[in-house]
Design a protein that fits this description.
Distance between the termini: 19 Å
Order of helices and strands: EEHEHHHEEHEEHHEHEHHHH
Number of strands: 9
Helix content: 40-55%
Largest sheet: 6 strands, mixed
Number of helices: 12
Amino acid sequence: MLNPPPLVDALLVIEDRVATLTFNRDDVRNELTGTHLIDDIERTVDWINREESIAALILTGAGRAFSSGGNVKHMLAREGSFGGDVYEVQKKYREGVQRIPLAMRRLDVPAIAAINGPAIGAGFDLACMCDIRIASIDATMAESFVNVGIIPGDGGAWFLQRLVGYQRAAELTFSGRVLKADEARALGIVLDVVANEALLAHAREMAHGFAGKPPQALRLTKRLMQSAQRMEFGDFLDHCAAFQGICHNTADHLEAVASMLERRRPNYSGR
């Protein structure tokens, strides 16, 4: 019996090994810094990492937006996450919104952002932290921090240039301009653009496809993809060899090979 974590501002639905986390603060366009969504994201990631039956995570927003990022009214009033002297503000960033990229980087399963509307500032960065992004035709995105006189304090400059290269990331970050879904797809930021009403179905179809793979190999592959971004090549090959040794000694590896040779559907046990 699954025991999902208690959440405040998000809804978590589990269906056939796929978790869908829906940001549920449409009243503030699912902004991150003045709600409990940071806590909800972190709790969900840590729960999934412990719960081996979950094979993929979808992030999406309820209502008008995926996420509007930081609360600009709080910025103007110098309150909440943005109040205090230099030391206090940096501490609030480290103990607040920066918990999101740290959580997403330690997530053991594939993450899909189903971008249902505007993904702005930290909301855009959150989408970029996922492995795959799918956008509705009406979605918009912006690395908009410079427009309000700040920098991407949540790590966005690290993620975006790894998606589109330094030059394009620089143009998007220095301009703060808004991207429509089709341009985001052309730039390689999103994988697919679909009709609004088809967004979640498309994301779930993809997630269920991932979830049909051997569970241990899927999680190890996710960890391997993340490791490849930071390791020297020789060290990475050693990493691959160790992970492959694990995989070759699983029952699911033998089941995958046997089912392929016998032309039948595999029955994975997670062992």
